[in-house]
């Protein structure tokens, strides 16, 4: 029971609140420290996400040899043939004549299936009068497949569906003619063969057949064939599109623009990361702007809170040793040389150098003319400098060394700040925050006990004064009665 100023007229609630404010100062400091660590945790994780994105992009682009093998192919008749590089390591040129295109074998049932009355393609085979349960299909370039059905349960739709799925042919029912048509999924010489009692019932065993044929062409004077119109030669994919007995000329060359685009993107991403990391370790720390409590926020305007917290959140990673070490390792990695024999290859050999402006903190600058020339003359040289793999450090490309530095740092940050969803016990800052939660909980319990004690003390004082007032009133009444 709490009695607030009934006898004394004092604002007991305000008095106790002011007294508790002084007691809560240590708790406020712990809460502020916890909030600051949570901001620091968020910043660490944000940096770690950016580092992971950078690491993944490096692996998927400039560390892949295929990035530097991009080629453009000039063709004299693009209507007849398409040629593109898949994994070619050398140039490709010559002539091509196309005598025949590859075609797929076809088969049409000899007679149509009549759907009378209420019967449809979803009626059972038994309802349609189709007697048979087994069909065997042999298609060019594929294994023979035998399928078994239940005429009392299976329909024309389910039969065709299984054939399409399992038999290396594409089959459909033509509602106009009532016939079933099949086309081999593989082109090339051969025909479709059908047997079995269900094949006979569907009029396919004696149906009309068209044999498939191979593509026939002359490549640089060599007369040859392929079962498909699309095939590969020396890492180039060739797609024949129409007959052209007149020789078609073709030649390949490095796709300079595409390779250049990949290298420029790498440099841009690197410079952006350098700028972000340096901004974090140089961000000012405003110690006079501590995290706001809920009571303080209640007394401020929204814009005031925003401006205050902008300064309070600043500097969480100022002079962070892990990030400083990463920046140094990144610069060292890209300033190195590749190879064990002279002359060793460096970034400058492909037109990339560190900025001479010390304010750029080691950003890279590209001489696009020189880089373009190197790509045009020898794209593999760019690969050797940047992405080359190797067991020894000297043999590895500079980007591989850069990625190692990034991945090592990510492990350190993860051990300190964890990942999203990680349990607090599994990383350093999480354990500290957990200890703070326990400390705050104990402090709040003590504060509640102190506040309860104050209320009890004030309540007893109120009750004592109330009794004194009652006794005084009784005395006044007694003395009044004697007069």
TrEMBL record:
This is Flagellar hook-associated protein 2. It is found in: Secreted; Bacterial flagellum. Residues 212-469 form the Flagellar hook-associated protein 2 C-terminal domain. It comes from Sporosarcina pasteurii (Bacillus pasteurii). Belongs to the FliD family. Homopentamer. GO terms for biological process: bacterial-type flagellum-dependent cell motility; cell adhesion. The lineage of its organism: Bacteria, Bacillati, Bacillota, Bacilli, Bacillales. The keyword S-adenosyl-L-methionine does not apply.
């Amino acid at each position: 029971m709490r009695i607030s100023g009934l006898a004394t007229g004092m604002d007991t609630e305000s008095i106790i609140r002011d007294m508790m404010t002084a007691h809560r100062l240590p708790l406020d400091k712990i809460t502020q420290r916890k909030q600051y660590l949570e901001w620091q945790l968020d910043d660490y994780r944000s940096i770690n996400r950016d580092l992971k994105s950078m690491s993944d992009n490096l692996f998927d682009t400039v560390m892949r040899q295929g990035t530097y093998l991009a080629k453009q192919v000039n063709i004299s008749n693009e209507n007849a043939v398409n040629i593109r590089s898949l994994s070619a390591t050398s140039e490709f040129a010559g002539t091509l004549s196309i005598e025949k295109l590859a075609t797929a074998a076809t088969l049409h049932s000899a007679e149509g299936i009549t759907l009378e009355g209420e019967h449809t393609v979803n009626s059972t085979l038994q309802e349609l009068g189709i007697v048979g349960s087994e069909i065997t299909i042999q298609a060019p370039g594929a294994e023979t497949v035998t399928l078994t059905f239940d005429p009392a349960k299976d329909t024309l739709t389910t039969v065709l569906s299984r054939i399409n799925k399992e038999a290396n042919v594409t089959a459909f029912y033509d509602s106009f003619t009532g016939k079933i048509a099949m086309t081999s999924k593989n082109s090339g010489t051969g025909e479709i063969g059908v047997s079995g009692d269900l094949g006979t019932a569907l009029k396919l065993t004696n149906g009309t057949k068209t044999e498939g044929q191979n593509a026939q062409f002359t490549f640089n004077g060599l007369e040859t064939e392929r079962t498909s119109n699309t095939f590969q030669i020396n890492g180039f994919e060739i797609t024949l599109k129409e007959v052209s007995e007149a020789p078609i000329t073709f030649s390949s060359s490095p796709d300079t623009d595409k390779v250049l685009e990949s290298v420029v993107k790498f440099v841009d991403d690197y410079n952006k990361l350098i700028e972000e990391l340096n901004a974090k370790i140089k961000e000012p720390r405003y110690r006079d702007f501590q995290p706001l409590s809920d009571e303080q926020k209640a007394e401020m305007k929204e814009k005031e809170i925003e401006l205050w917290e902008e300064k309070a959140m600043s500097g969480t990673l100022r002079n962070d040793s892990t990030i400083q070490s990463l920046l140094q390792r990144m610069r060292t990695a890209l300033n190195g040389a590749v190879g064990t024999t002279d002359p060793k290859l460096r970034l400058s050999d492909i037109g990339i150098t560190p900025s001479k402006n010390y304010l750029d903190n080691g950003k890279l600058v590209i001489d696009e003319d020189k880089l373009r020339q190197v790509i045009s003359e020898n794209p593999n040289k760019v690969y050797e400098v940047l992405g080359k793999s190797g067991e020894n450090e000297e043999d590895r490309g500079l980007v591989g060394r850069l990625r190692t530095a990034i991945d090592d740092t990510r492990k350190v940050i993860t051990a300190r700040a964890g990942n999203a969803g990680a349990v607090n016990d599994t990383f350093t800052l999480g354990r500290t925050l957990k200890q703070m939660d326990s400390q705050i909980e104990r402090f709040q319990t003590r504060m509640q006990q102190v506040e309860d004690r104050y209320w009890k003390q004030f309540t007893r004082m109120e009750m004592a004064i109330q009794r004194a007032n009652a006794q005084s009133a009784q005395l006044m009444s007694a003395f009044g009665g004697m007069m």
